[in-house]
Amino acid sequence: MGIVTNKTDKMQSCIDACAKCSQACYECFNACLNEPDLNARKNCVSMLVECAMMCQMSVATMSMNGHFSSEHCQICAKICDKCAEECAMFKDDHCKKCADICRMCAEECRKMANIHSMV
């Protein structure tokens, strides 16, 4: 499951979820920029970028089996939850899909943080 080692096997589903979430947030961000009510989406657009960046950092931290992966993923879960909440306020298909992906990522991050903190 890991690319060059098996040290990240137990984190792979979270790594994959975070990579997908980051991509979804950047895609949603780009789509939101073209919406006529962009001004109403300021909080959401800002949250999309923060979530995407946090997910990218989570991928990096878990990939190197970092010492603070568990704590990092706990924060990532909170950010993903908030991003899902913001996206859910809008009825566009891209926002609904992004909210779903953010929720899924938050759940994977919570699972990973719990597993990793037990080790």
UniProtKB/TrEMBL annotation:
PANTHER family: CYTOPLASMIC PROTEIN (PTHR37310:SF1), CYTOPLASMIC PROTEIN-RELATED (PTHR37310)
Name by which UniProt lists this protein: Uncharacterized protein DUF326
Alphabetized InterPro entries for the sequence: Csp_YhjQ, YHJQ-like
Organism the protein comes from: Sedimentibacter saalensis
